[in-house]
Amino acid sequence: MEMRKAAVAGKFYPANEPELRATVLDLVEKAPEREVDGEVRIAVVPHAGYMFSGLVAATVYKLLKKHENDFKEIVLIGPAHYVPVIGTYAPEDDKWEFPWGIEEVGILEGFPRDRLVHEPEHSLEVQFPFIHYLMPDKKVYPLAIGQEDPFKLAGQLLPHLEDRLLLISTDLSHYYPYEKAIEIDSYANKCIPAKDIECVIEKVEACGKIGLLAGLAIAKQEDYQGHFLLYMNSGDVWWDKSQVVGYGAYVFTR
Asked: Looking at the whole model, is its pTM more than 0.90?
């Protein structure tokens, strides 16, 4: 068995460990405080470079840190951006390299394993530094999603979530002008916490939409309460507002 090398260290997040630690902790310190009642069972986080979506992601992780006793482990799902596949895949390799060292990831039973789909994928990798520095005892079970029936996926995931958080990695709309992105993503900010699956299918734009719909199906079946935490887009932190990407933070509680 080989080891997965860090694919986006030095690109999406710092490759230098002290700098990475400082970046993560600074983002969490600056993130707004959010409070929710009940146990956090599902969370939705963005996956762009930390310069762009780090504050939105940190808002989720800041809340998860306060609720870390709600779950023992984490099932992390995100879209496969680079390798076109049909289905949902666990990694072939259970050892992943990061700036702080080697992390042993969990391999979720019932899913096929694939090295190539995980090797370049950033949507999963960028979540690990937040988890490592804030909740180092939480084992992570990553899954990369290709073409998939979200409702079938929901049924596959649910038996694995008794003591595990479902962490869904997705960005929202891509490459619209600033104001148009806000308009489009307003549907996500309304429909995701409301568990309005039809609205999400018809009106929400998200690269991780399949995983998002699977999570919403679980949240609806289990009667979880949805919460909107924060929305930003890349135009809030970058000079170019002509083509922005949207980022949303949401959790579901029991």
From this structure: yes
